[in-house]
Amino acid sequence: MGFPSTRMRRMRRTETLRSMVRETRLSPSNLVLPLFVVEGTSVREPIVSMPGVHRFSVDHVVLEAKRVADLGISSVILFGIPDGKDGHGSGADAEDGIVQRATRAVAEAVPELAVMTDVCLCEYTDHGHCGLLDGEEVDNDASLERIASTALSHARAGASVIAPSDMMDGRVAAIRGELDANGFEEIPILSYAAKYASAYYGPFRDAAESAPEFGDRRGYQMDPPNRREAMREMRLDLEEGADMLMVKPAMAYLDILADARREFDVPLAAYHVSGEYSMIKAAGERGWIDADRAMEEALVSIKRAGADLILTYAAADIAEKL
Question: I need a surface site. Which of 141, 176, 202, 319 has the fewest CB within 10 A?
Fold first, then answer.
């Protein structure tokens, strides 16, 4: 039946009515908060290009983890920023490395929180690339052993989920094999399966001090115009043993996320990346938009497109409002 018998506005008239029929709902348990960990003690250093985001020393990461757990957030993901870097990324799999110490501390202090760890060499190499170099080219196969070793060190430190972000071919299989061979068969892998060579990563590279010293990452991260290729990447990672798949960035790639939701019956994550977050915050600071409403709308769009989990720097702010 059409107008006037059918009036779509009837169920939009009040917040109570709108809430009753709301199709997509955010929950704190859907959110994952990225945390940057640095050396030292009592460090809570603001990141200028990411308003509201900080670098934390291990002791303050624990305090932040307790805070977000109290808000109902179920998980954090840790990124380490070591004092020293070298061409081999030696700090990535060190037993006393920055992420390893933070993982142990958070897992012990907040056992109800799932601790994800980002597995990549870019934060630990002096050249800033995600793998080992052969001249000025990233050597995919030579990098796999280092990546798998890093994942194992995170599992030994108490990580709940291993999340490789390097985009080397075969890294999920290498990690799964290393974990299984060392008694960590139960540790799931969240693969950054469709990670694009995006312009939206700038503030993160500032925060993590991980920008490449030369060249760029377009030789191993996905080309932004490609859509079908993302499904191949995801399918291969599942075949290699991934338990969950991620699309990164999120908002600029909602079509990829929706495609993945139709194609795969596995948990999907999407990373609301630093540039997507900082644009909203910056516009809000200038009074151009209502940043709180825009941030929530952005995350709802990601959930609506099919994400089960959303990695976002706004996790704590949103959880406080839900």
Answer: 141
